[in-house]
Amino acid sequence: MIRVHLSGQLQDVTGGMGEVDLDSAADLEAMVTELESSYPGLGRRIVDDQGKIRTYVNVFVNKENSKELDRERTKLRDGDVVHVLPSVAGG
Asked: SS3 breakdown of the chain: % helix, strand, coil, rounded to 5?
């Protein structure tokens, strides 16, 4: 099982759920596909039209930034914890 933590900005798509458990996902790309399948609209808030993690979205796998790993192709294993955190801007 992979546990995905979603920040508050994404919870409007999940009906207020801040944590989602997935049975499996080989990598972050597959995770986004599964999330989109269960919560339509969530995937496009995480990745762009080419399937790349949006520049303003930080995805951490076990506290490591996916931008420092293999981005969308970062492998996932049973027991991994993923945090999806869109940047917040404003004044």
From this structure: 25, 30, 45
